[in-house]
Amino acid sequence: MRLPKFSVNAFCMAAASFFLILSGIFLIKIYLQTGEDWIVFSGIFYIVFVFIIVALLIAWLRYQLLLFSKTFCRLLDDMLNGEEVCFPVLEKEHLFDKMVYRLMRLYEVLSENRRSVAKEREDLQSLISDISHQVKTPIANLKMINATLLEQPVEEEKRIEFLKACGTQIDKLDFLMQAIIKTSRLEAGVISLKKQKQSIYGTLAGALGGILLNAERKGIQIQVDCPEDLEVFHDRKWTGEALFNLLDNAVKYTPDGGKIWIEVRDWEMYGRITITDNGKGIAKERQGTIFQRFYREEEVHETEGIGIGLYLAREIVMMQGGYIQVSSEVGKGASFSVFLPYR
Questions:
Q1: Of 199, 272, 267, which Cα lies nearest the Cα of 234?
Q2: pTM (two decimals)
């Protein structure tokens, strides 16, 4: 059974009619019992006075309700349209102020969510653009080599050379995909770093194992100064990945016959791992941008790499409560210091 719906105006009219009818019955009853006219007139005056006061009160309440609903609807419309919302100044602790305060909190949450979504969309577009830029060159090379092998007669020696070039481009694509997967998993929080107090010596040794062959090919000397008993809180696997990326960069940009120094020191609150080379160095104005994803300096585009190693290293170190500092001069090498907290 559905109840009939009444508007505020209809309810007020019904209440006023009921009040007048009840007042009239009351006055007639008094007149019949007393027979005094002045009592009836006094009653009428009192009833009219009360009726006017009640009518004014209802009119004032109705005005306040309309004003409240109009303001509230305007605020909601501005929020829905994504416009800048101008909230009224809250002065008193009444119902309207309480509702506006909660609406302000809702607006702040929605605005923060909107900014977060916009930033995520911008980051995603940037990532897609960077990936397409990085993938474009190796795919174009593979297409060219494949077309050459299919359409033209090629000597066996030249064919092997082309296949080796294909292998190089495939390795570059595979490295790119692996680096992107690692980065995205870290940023999405899929991977949780398991920090525990352990020797940094073993972590550094594991990272060094990945770059020794390339260092030997270029005749680069590596000097290590690391206390075997120094322990810091870190995730061995991912910290090793960060150190490997820094060491790999040092090997790439150090000339043949150069030298790399690795120094580990015990600071008051951090363990510091410093990797220094005597390579080409980094200009001061670029030292703030080298940690950006896929960033590479113009003059090193012929050197193998995709520009994600430093970005990944910084993300790994920061997720463990640490940070990386760089110090360099053009032509005098570069020095990267990794600071890992003891707690």
A1: 199
A2: 0.57
Per residue in 31-54, pLDDT (tens digit) is 677 767 777 677 777 777 777 887
Report the alpha-carbon angle 183-188-189, nearest 5. Answer: 100
Read off the pLDDT band of 337 (50, 70, 90).
Answer: very high
Is 270 in a helix, a strand, or coil? strand
What is the Cα–Cα distance from 18 to 21, expressed in whole angstroms?
5
Within 13 A of 76's CA, how many CA atoms are on the CB side?
A: 7
What are 314's two structure tokens?
Answer: 């910084």
Number of other residues whose CB lies within 10 A of the CB of residue 83: 9
Q: What are phi and psi of 327, to 5 degrees?
A: -135, 130
Helix 236-252, helix 200-209: angle, nearest 10:
50
Residue 335: count other Cβ atoms within 10 Å of its Cβ.
19
- Alpha-carbon gap, residue 126 to 117, rounded angstroms: 14
Return d(Cα 275, Cα 1) in angstroms, integer. 81
